[in-house]
Design a protein that fits this description.
The protein is an alpha+beta fold and about 150 residues long. The protein has helices at about 1-20, 30-50, 50-75; strands spanning about 105, 115-120, 120-130, 140-145, 150. The protein folds into two domains: about 1-80; about 105-150, Nucleic acid-binding proteins (OB fold (Dihydrolipoamide Acetyltransferase, E2P)), CATH 2.40.50. It is rod-shaped and about 95 Å long.
Length: about 150
């Protein structure tokens, strides 16, 4: 009866670890339960049998558990959970369309160093590299980079 109980605990622990690695990765509850059952089976082997037999049980259990974990990683189950596609497309951003370096406009808020300025009939958020610019001042686009308008 004791061997059957020890063997049953070890097999149950091994199955739970296998389930953790292959079917429910990331939950860790199943894996911890598997390790606990395996550890309890090894404990019972040390309590009920001599140390050489118990050490054999410990060694074989460790080899089996590590083997199951390595099998889980080598089986490719983790590839199901990883992103394989890349997004290489871009969106067209027309917010700065119609603007060009040298275009003149007027500030409609204080620029310190960010604020709002009007170019044509459209209001844009702008940045000043020259520091504070008060409301109502005429400004000129110095640089357009990405979605930022830099004025002077």
């Amino acid at each position: 009866m004791t061997w059957a109980l020890i063997l049953g605990l070890l097999v149950l622990g091994l199955i739970l670890i296998l389930l953790e690695v292959i079917f429910v990765p990331g939950t860790t509850v199943v894996g911890i339960l598997g390790l606990a059952f395996s550890a309890f089976g090894v404990y019972l082997a040390f309590v009920n049998y001599d140390s050489s037999t118990a050490l054999w049980v410990l060694g074989l259990t460790a080899i089996a558990n590590v083997g199951v974990i390595f099998y889980g990683f080598k089986s490719g189950v983790w590839k199901r959970f990883s992103l394989k596609d890349t997004i290489s497309s871009r969106t067209y951003d027309d917010r700065l369309e119609g603007l060009q370096v040298g275009l003149r406009g007027k500030t409609i808020s204080d620029i310190k160093p960010y604020g709002k300025a009007e170019f044509g009939d459209t209001i844009y958020e702008v940045k000043s590299n020259s520091g504070f610019i008060p409301t109502g001042q005429e400004v000129e686009i110095q640089q357009l980079e990405y979605n930022r308008i830099i004025i002077k």
